[in-house]
């Protein structure tokens, strides 16, 4: 077998695709333009660099769809999940990651793999020959974006993804803030105290909202539209939707007790989550923003406990590009007009690190199986992987297609279970049990690779 698999983009999806294909016995070349050509959000040339949050979200594989996706990726010997587990930080039931050693581990393991090579250059065209996966993510370069546009004949779709600020821990006033996970969630004391909380009374909250609404914001370029993804809204956009929106979103005070004033219920709470293993950096949870830098420091220092905060990174905003996958991709993630090309990751219209890596995992396996002459059967729709790939390759309405996190709303109903909130726990457990069985059965059908893959 001499055919190579070329993967454009070394983010979560590209890295996972490369690992899966190489482990199946296919030679892989990763084409990553960084560090020669940088982006607004990236700071290094490492593969799988985390540029927004450091959280992979819930790790609950029985009651949460993204936790189920974690489970499926681990079952498939995923590199991204193995590296995340190796550099896990306490996060009260979520899977948070020490971002720099995580990316360094992914990079080192791929570069050490005998079937993987990394080439640092920008790919600007869609090739006619060979086997390719494009996993260039939300920051696809303008030249490549134009090439995709020319091929698909479609207007580029975009939304704006905002980056949350990071605070130096030693500049937080702990006489006002305290450590506690919401509802004390977690099995260990470290998990139960994974979040740093800053309380506000009503007057402080109202003043904060006024400042958010009045702050200078980043201007959009001519021709751009602010079609935000609802899961990553800038806080000032949430505030514009109603003064109480933030108090029922990232600033909700439920499940928390202020030990400094245990008899006083906070009107709102700002939560920060540890961003590195040393505990020297904390990111402000849910506080993506498009405020200008000067306005950010003024507004965020209104938060009790952050009056003298120093910021390791302020928030930012960038354009995220994705294709209309339901019209452009087949069930194997191939571009219908050029079947030698697959797309994977966030550019396909999934949202989040985990979902992007999961689509890379599938694209890598599907491409490798095709190269090896052993095409795989369809991914089972009842698995989390299958629910996602089905959504982006045909399950979604093409006219209103928008980026989507994995969620149980993408799963087919389980017969005999009642709907509504009261039946949710049993229903979610039924979804995850069914998904695990379907995913394991699908993985078993790929066991031929262990014997058939070339040495």
From TrEMBL:
Catalysed reaction, written as an equation: uridine(54) in tRNA + (6R)-5,10-methylene-5,6,7,8-tetrahydrofolate + NADH + H(+) = 5-methyluridine(54) in tRNA + (6S)-5,6,7,8-tetrahydrofolate + NAD(+); uridine(54) in tRNA + (6R)-5,10-methylene-5,6,7,8-tetrahydrofolate + NADPH + H(+) = 5-methyluridine(54) in tRNA + (6S)-5,6,7,8-tetrahydrofolate + NADP(+)
EC number(s) given by UniProt: 2.1.1.74
Coiled coil segments of this chain: none
Subcellular location: Cytoplasm
Residues holding FAD: 9-14
Every MnmG N-terminal domain range: 5-373
Location (main, coarse): cytoplasm
Keyword match Cytoplasm: yes
Cofactor annotation: FAD
Pfam families: GIDA
InterPro entries named in the record: FAD/NAD-bd_sf, MnmG-rel, MnmG_N, TrmFO
Enzyme class: transferase
Keywords: Cytoplasm, FAD, Flavoprotein, Methyltransferase, NAD, NADP, Transferase, tRNA processing
A GO cellular component annotation in the UniProt record: cytosol
GO biological process: tRNA methylation; tRNA wobble uridine modification
Molecular function in Gene Ontology: flavin adenine dinucleotide binding; tRNA (uracil(54)-C5)-methyltransferase activity, 5,10-methylenetetrahydrofolate-dependent
Role noted for this protein: Catalyzes the folate-dependent formation of 5-methyl-uridine at position 54 (M-5-U54) in all tRNAs.
Similarity comment text for this entry: Belongs to the MnmG family. TrmFO subfamily.
Protein name per the record: Methylenetetrahydrofolate--tRNA-(uracil-5-)-methyltransferase TrmFO
